[in-house]
Design a protein that fits this description.
By secondary structure, the protein is α+β, with helices and mostly antiparallel strands. It has helices spanning 4-55, 179-231, 246-295, 302-326, 338-347, 372-389, 432-435, 445-455, and strands at residues 73-76, 82-85, 89-93, 133-134, 140-148, 151-163, 169-177, 334-337, 356-359, 367-370, 394-401, 404-411, 459-464, 470-476. Strands 1, 2, 3, 4, 5, 6 and 7 form a seven-stranded antiparallel β-sheet that branches. It has a five-stranded mixed β-sheet with strand order 9-11-12-14-13.
């Protein structure tokens, strides 16, 4: 069963069915118990009426049982012999005896003890009652059947003891019909069996319709997502319902995801297009020079070919590093001295147009955790950028405080306009004056520098320098000295 609506309807129907069946059984049990108790009370009343007559020493044959047509009565003595039964009683079960024919016996008021035939009254404090009595104890109740005038039915029997004035103890078994209880229980049970399927069908139908209405926006979202997948048009959005429920939040989250995905795909497309454009120029130039050199060896520009090859190699290395960063490559956690790394990078820059001024503390308290190669690439890119724009000054300084280590690279060039200070960190972005330079980069250096700084838990920002140029500030967290 793959449909959510079908599963919801089936689940709701099963829950309601179990609840109704349990409630129905409880109602039937309570109803049966109450009606049975009422029948037992009627049987007790009838039994006590007959027991009262026996307590007054009424003879067995003179007992008034004419009113007991609906309440069959059986009277037994101490030995379990039947001494009296109601009129037209043909069979009985559930009482002390199944006999319906009285046995010859002494009158109810006579003594059944041969040792007391002399009739002398005892004077030992009255061990024999002066008058008969009916037991005040709660009667015993049993269920059984009785056949009266050819009709057999179920009865609730109550047993009440009565003692005559001569000390004879008799037990009266009187029954009350259970037909009312059986009829009521049967009627209620039949109504439940008839109404339960109808109610379950209604519950299933209502659940199906409500679930269908609730899931209609989900179907709309699914259709739109299928259309987006088929058309590959990430500018489309799924419909958002007006409600504030989970489905509306799902639609909003889906649209937000599509927005991020569209932006990511657009960046990727621009990256591929820009990379293709940047690669095309050095490759075309190199090919032209090689073709000219092949045809006219004396005209081969070897330095130009080497420069184009170096430019192509640098661009390929930048693209490879960006690809690794985009793939989520995590930097190493090797402790290194950032001040020493800056000195090393500056010392290797022998062909710079403007000498770099270095200011590094002698305390050596500039240790960070990270990838030596990637951080060296950041410092090199910042110095390359400063060399392209500086007039007479390129300076780099390193400092440390409680919040981490900072590297500042500044120049005295034209600087970066405030509205361009974030855009220059985008890939393949170069300002107009930089694009006009023959030695301008591909616009990847600052993007790589910020990505590396971010993956090391740091930041890279740009401000205006005191000399009028740009001030790039790299901040990295200090090394954990516990490790």
């Amino acid at each position: 069963m793959r449909s959510v609506r079908a599963r919801a309807a089936l689940g709701a129907t099963l829950v309601v069915a179990v609840a109704l069946i349990g409630a129905g059984l409880a109602v039937l049990m309570v109803l049966r118990a109450n009606l049975t108790d009422q029948a037992g009370l009627q049987a007790e009343v009838s039994a006590r009426e007959v027991a009262g007559q026996l307590a007054l020493d009424t003879a067995y044959g003179a007992l008034d049982l004419d009113d007991e047509e609906d309440h069959p009565v059986q009277v037994t003595d101490e030995k379990g012999r039947v001494v009296a039964v109601s009129k037209d009683l043909e069979a009985i079960s559930g009482t002390e005896s199944g006999v319906v024919r009285p046995v010859p016996s002494a009158p109810a008021g006579a003594s059944g003890d041969d040792d007391d035939d002399d009739g002398d009254d005892r004077d030992d404090g009255g061990s024999r009652p002066a008058r008969g009595e009916v037991s005040s104890d709660d009667p015993d109740f049993t269920n059984g059947t009785a056949t009266v005038d050819g009709h057999t039915a179920d009865y609730r029997f109550a047993s009440v003891e009565a003692t005559t004035s001569t000390g004879v103890t008799l037990t009266v078994h009187a029954g009350a019909p259970l037909a009312t209880e059986q009829e009521a229980v049967g009627t209620v049970r039949g109504a439940m069996l008839t109404g339960l399927p109808v109610l379950l069908v209604v519950v299933a139908g209502v659940t199906w319709l409500v679930t269908r209405r609730a899931l209609r926006p989900v179907e709309g979202i699914r259709r739109e997502m299928a259309a987006i997948t088929a058309s590959e048009d990430l500018s489309r959005r799924v419909p958002e319902p007006d409600s504030r429920d989970e489905i509306a939040r799902l639609a909003r989250t889906t649209n937000e995801t599509l927005t991020v995905l569209e932006a990511s795909v657009d960046r990727q497309r621009r990256f591929v297009a820009d990379a293709s454009h940047e690669l095309r120029s050095p490759i075309a130039s190199l090919r032209t020079q090689l073709e000219v050199g092949a045809a006219h060896p004396e005209l081969l520009d070897v330095p130009g070919a080497v420069a184009d090859t170096v430019r192509l190699q640098t661009l390929a290395a930048d693209l490879l590093l960006l690809a690794r960063l985009d793939a989520g490559e995590k930097p190493g956690r090797t402790p290194l001295d950032l001040g020493a790394l800056v000195r090393e990078e500056v010392s290797q820059r022998l062909g710079d147009r403007i000498p770099v001024t270095v200011s590094v503390p002698d305390t050596g308290d500039c240790e960070v955790n990270g990838s030596r190669g990637q951080l060296a690439r950041v410092i090199g890119n910042l110095l390359d950028n400063a060399e392209r724009h500086a007039e007479r000054l390129v300076a780099v300084s390193v400092s440390a405080d409680a919040n981490g280590v900072s590297v500042e690279v500044r120049d005295d060039g034209a600087g970066v306009p405030p509205d361009e200070r974030e855009r220059i960190f985008e890939r393949f972005v170069r300002l107009d004056d930089a694009r006009s330079r023959d030695d301008g980069g591909a616009g990847l250096g600052l993007a790589i520098a910020r990505d590396v700084a971010t993956r090391h838990g740091g930041t890279l920002t740009v401000d205006g320098a005191a000399e009028g140029g740009a001030l790039f500030r790299l901040r990295l967290p200090g090394a954990d000295r516990a490790h």
